[in-house]
Specification:
Elements: H1 3-23, H2 33-50, H3 54-61, E1 75-76, E2 95-98, E3 109-112, H4 114-131, E4 139-142, H5 154-163, E5 168-171, E6 173-175, E7 181-183, H6 185-198, E8 202-206, H7 208-216, E9 228-231, H8 244-255, E10 262-266, E11 275-276, E12 295-300, E13 313-320, E14 329-339, E15 342-348, H9 351-356
Parallel strand pairs: 1-14, 4-5, 4-8, 8-9, 9-10
Antiparallel strand pairs: 2-3, 6-7, 10-11, 12-13, 13-14, 14-15
Helix pairs in contact: 1-2, 1-4, 2-3, 7-8
Length: 363
Amino acid sequence: MNELSALSTLSDELIRLFDREAQAQFDGSAIGEDAFAGLARRLFRLQTSLNPRYRPVVESTGLASVDDWRRFPCVPTAAFRDSDWSCIPRQERTGAFVSSGTTRGLRSRHCHSRRSLALYRGSLYRWFFHHFRSPRNAQLMVLTPSPKDAPDSSLAYMFGAVSQAFEEADFYGRISTDRAWELDRQRLVTDWNEARRRDRPVALLGTAFSFVWLLELRELPPLPAESLLLETGGYKGLVQEWRRSDLYDALISRFGLERNRLLSEYGMCELSSQAYDCRAGDSAEPRSFRFPPWARCQVISPETEQEVEMGATGLIRVFDLANAWSVMAVQTGDLGRRLAGGVQLLGRASETELRGCSLRFEA
C-alpha cells in the first residue's frame, strides 16, 4: 500500500472511530489517550511524507522521528495565507475553504477533496449535535449565506451540513454588491413572527455581528419557549465589537432566552474540528471551550513553547486528527486561559506574543 492509499484508509478509519465515540456519548472509550497518541503518530508520518510544504519544516527541526504528539511541529494559521498545506494531489482537489480576512488583507486557504470533506462532516456533525440539543420540531434559522452563495466559507458549509437534520431550515444571509455578508431582514422578520405565532421553537445559528443586527430589528418579538442560539464569534470590522457577556445579556433580555440556551462555537477554516463552550441546557460556570476526543488543545507559553500551568494564559494550539488531509498540528493566533475542563478564549494574540513563539519558520 502506498502512502496516499494509507492516508485514505486512515481517513475512513477515523470516521468509524468518530461514530463509535459518538455512540458512547464521548466518554473516551474509542479515542482515549493511547488511541489518540497512536493515531497521531501514524498521521504525522504520513503528513510529513505527503505534504510537500510540511516536510521541509519537519526535517529542519530534526523531529521527523519523534513519537510524542506534543512535540510535532505546529503550523501557524498565518502560514495558510501564503501556501497550500495539503496532502491532496492537485487533480483531486474540489475546492478550498477561505478565511474571512486578515489584518494584512490576505486570506488563509484550506484545500479539500471528496475524502477530506467526508472526514470534515464526520467531525463537525457528531460534535455539533452533542452540544446543540434542539427540540425536534425546531425551525432552523441561519443568519449566514448558504453554502451555495458562499462556497468558500467553512462556516456556511458547516451550517449547510447540520441544516439537513432539520425538517424546516432556511438561510437569511446574503452577499451584498461589495461581497460583504448582510441579512435579508424583511424575510427574517416575516418568518420569525410566523414562528412566534405558531409557538414553534427557533434554532438560531450565526456570527456575533449577525446577532448585533438582530438587536437592531425592533420588529422582532421574543422567541418562543425552548428556542436555542449558537454564536460563532467574529465581527470582521463590520460593526463595533461587543464583549461576549454584554452581547449575551442583550440577547437574553430582548428575546427572552435562558442563558443556558445560548452556546458559543470556536472554529476556523484551517481546522476540521470545532470547540463549544457548553451543552444546551447545562448551567456549569465558568464556561470553557472543549474540542472533541479526536483533537487535543494546548495553551502554551510563547517564550518556552511549553504548556502553561492551570489557570495561566498563553497561545492556543490544536492537534486535530480530522485535519488528516492537511496538517494535524496547528498554532492558532488566539490567546486562551487553561482550565480543567477546557480553554477560556481571550481573543487575538498581539504581534509581540506571536513573535515570542519561536516557530522556526516564517509564516
